[in-house]
Structure formats: structure tokens, C-alpha cells
Amino acid sequence: MRQFADAIDAGASGSDLGAMPIPESFRAAHVLRNEQTMFEGRASADKDPREAMHIGEVATPELAPDEVYLAVMASSINFNTVWSSIFEPLPTFGFLDRLGRESRWGARHALDYHVLGSDAAGVVLQVGSAVRNWRPGDRVVVHCNYVDDQDPAAHEDSMMASNQRIWGFESNFGGLADLSVVKANQLMPKPTHLSWEESAVNALCASTSYRMLVGEHAARMKQGDSVLVWGASGGLGGYACQLVLNGGGVPIGVVSSPDKVELLHQLGVDHVIDRSAEGYRFWADEHTQDEREWRRLGKTVRGLIGEDPDIVFEHPGRSTMGASVFVAKRGGKIVTCAATTGYMIEYDNRHLWMRLKQIVASHFANYAEAWAMNRLIGQGRIQPTLSKTYTLDETGLAAWQVHGNLHEGKLGVLCLASGPGQGITDPDKREQIGEDKITLFARHAASLEAANA
Ligand code: NAP
Hints:
Elements: H1 2-9, H2 14-19, E1 25-32, H3 49-52, E2 54-59, E3 67-77, H4 79-86, H5 93-100, E4 113-115, E5 120-127, E6 139-142, E7 145-146, E8 165-166, E9 179-183, E10 187-189, H6 196-200, H7 203-213, E11 226-229, H8 235-246, E12 250-255, H9 258-267, E13 271-274, H10 275-278, E14 283-285, E15 288-289, H11 291-305, E16 311-314, H12 321-327, E17 333-336, H13 349-353, E18 358-361, H14 367-378, E19 386-391, H15 395-403, E20 410-414, H16 427-433, H17 435-438, H18 440-452
Parallel strand pairs: 11-12, 11-16, 12-13, 16-17, 17-18, 19-20
Antiparallel strand pairs: 1-2, 1-4, 3-5, 3-9, 3-20, 5-6, 6-10, 7-8, 14-15
Helix pairs in contact: 4-15, 7-8, 7-14, 9-18, 11-12
């Protein structure tokens, strides 16, 4: 794959790239089926992605008619890479086996290794016989909605398709590798003003936040809406805050350190709550929630913005859901896409029904939503939240950082890119949008590291 990287760096044409043979194997970050029970008996926090993640050569799969081979220049760590590499809540090999039973092409995925990764930026190398809109040489980013079009439900909203999957989590051959196979309907144009790693970190988290807040299927935020964002400087939250600000809303960010408060202020979020400083204890013990603590949060939010939030952007799950349902305004929405701290949720239903609130479920995004989000990034209206960049060999370390909540924003991973900062093809546009804006999260992380050195 290095030959492809050199050819891409040297500006090879699409036809030159298309004529180069695809190697029989490639370097990939993967977990192994025969290690899926390795963490049994350990507490979740002690399960270490560095122990489970392998970096090594795997065989190149055959290309299906609706797929492309992609030279992956950069990828990113998503929380699903953490889940896969600690084998929680389930090992992902069951997903691969189910896909394997679906079709001849699905059978390629049911292997004893799982190549992880649900984000990528790269260059199309070869296209399958049914691909119409993309050609070798195209510079692209990849969204992770892995779906085909033979279910009628997919035509209204592809997230409703019965065989909808998340690429690199519920399918094999994900983005944390030098090569990937990707369906043509996962491709989107790479933002020309961003580097490979800045381009690679956005699609999964930004598109998820877009559907949760902006798209027509979830909370449908209006101008002026106030939105309480949990984990506001994290992967999802960093994009959620920007979308609220962009859409004329008022974000109230919740984070867990003064450094993160400062980062959010720099992002333009005026109202930020440091949950660590406040010392919220929504759960008095393992079985009992403390409504007084919900009230204390509600009072803080009212003190900041003078009202209860129209929308609560939920993903921590068990630790916060009771509080989220409580603090949403009468008639408000709690939009949820995850449950990092536990999926057996408890809330007081009286606060939901008596005040006519709604809990709205959301999951990733359909192609149109991901495309709309990518357009905002391409226009420079939403900035990447890349805070730090790792090499592919350091994938386990990067996933461990996310597992331990030691990061801000998104962590990028260089695959074939020869170093950080490559791949920008429109420097004028970058200058116009502003280096300061584009690199806010990275500069903040660097200054923290320097201060702690
Ligand atoms: P992330 O980068 O780790 O950010 C999550 C944030 O949650 C952290 O920054 C942390 O912020 C906050 N948090 C952690 N524990 C908390 C607690 N006990 N109470 C309140 N806040 C807490 O992860 P992410 O990429 O945003 O993903 C978050 C979750 O969403 C994960 O479970 C992921 O799997 C899921 N997800 C789902 C989809 C989907 O399509 N359904 C898509 C993307 C992600 P502070 O410590 O600063 O408060």
C-alpha cells in the first residue's frame, strides 16, 4: 500500500491509480475472535483496548459490484472502536456472522478477525462494476451507514432498513487500516481545505449529532431553542454545540473540568456547567436516584438561561437520563443515541407524561443527512474537533484514551498519510475560514499537554 501512498502524494492521476494492482494483503487494526473472552471477570473500566488491538496484515477481500477499494489516508477513534476492543456489551463477531449468512458478499465478513474503524478519509483506487458516481482518484470521506437498497423501508429513510449496519462495527474491513472496502453509497467529497486527519474525524459523530438535532427524524431544533448538551466537548457534543450555535440556538454545555469549560467558551458556548465542580450525585446509591440533585441541575440551568431547555442532547445514559427527563422543559424533547454509562435506564415517568415531554431515539444518520452535514463542514460552517493525532500503530492507545475519557473532541489516526497536515488542496479557502477556528481543539489539547509536561 505504500506505493499507493507515494503515488497519491506525487499527484498521480485517477487512471494511473486505477491501473495499479491492489495488494493481496494490507495493514489493519483488528481484534481476534479467539480473544473475545479475554476480559471476562474484569470491570469495564479495567478492560484495556491496548491488550486486544492488533496491528498487522490481513487478506484483501474481493470487491462487490457496489463497492470501491479505498486507500485510507486517515481514520478516527469512535466509541464503537472502544466497545469492539473491550468486547462490550457484546463481542462484534456475532454481527459479522449474521452478515455472513445474508449473501455471498456478506460471507466475506465472517472472519476470525475484525478490522475496526467507522470513519475514513482517503482516495478511491478501484470501483466495482455497478458504481456510477465515483472514479479512481476521487478524494473522499466515508460515512458509516452500511445499507443496501432492497428493503422498501430504506427508500424513506435508510436508517429504517432492516439490514442497516454500522460499517467497521457491524461489518468487517473498517477504516482503521491502509485499505478498506466501502459501499459507493457511503462516499462523500472530502473537504478541500482540511487535512486528511481533520477530514477523517467528522462523519460519524457530526452526522449523528446532525440527525439528533437538525434532521427531520429526531429533535428538529428550531432557531432560539435552548439545548442542554451532555459531554459537550466530546465526540458528539463538540459538533452538537456547533450545530446549536449555527442554528440560532442556545447551547448549555456540560463537561467535567475547568479546561473543558475554557475550551467551550473559546468555541462560543457561553453557558457551561462543570459537573465535577458541581459534584452532582444523581444516583444516591446503585439503586436509588436523588430527585433533589435533578432539581439542583435544573436550577443551575434556569440560573444560566432563565428557562428550562427545549432539548436535552442525551448519550451518557443510565447516569444522567433521570436528570435529563426531569430538566427538559414542559413539552420538550430528550433526544438519545447512546448509553455509555449503562443502558438499563430509569427515570420518573410522571415528569415525562404530566409535562408532555418526549424521548426521541436517534441512531447515526441516513446518506442525505450525512451529506448535508459534510456540506456544512465543506463550507467551513462546522469545524473538525480533532484534538490529537495518532499513528495506526497507536490505535490501541488512542482507543484507551477515549475509554478513559482522557481526550477532548476527536482523536485522529494516520493510516497511509505520511504525516499530519497533508491532503489540503485549497489553502486559500482554509485561510479564509481561519486556521484558528479549524485547529481550536488541537491547539487547546497541545497547550494542556505543554502545561502538564
Ligand atoms: P466521547 O468523545 O467519549 O464523549 C462522551 C462524553 O460524555 C465525554 O466527553 C464526557 O464528558 C461525557 N460523560 C462521560 N461519562 C459521563 C457521565 N457519567 N455523566 C455525564 N457525562 C458523561 O464519546 P462520543 O463519541 O461523544 O460518544 C458518546 C456515546 O455515544 C458513546 O456511547 C458512543 O458509543 C455513542 N454514539 C452513538 C452513536 C449512534 O449513532 N447511535 C454515534 C456516536 C456515538 P465530560 O466528562 O466532560 O462530562
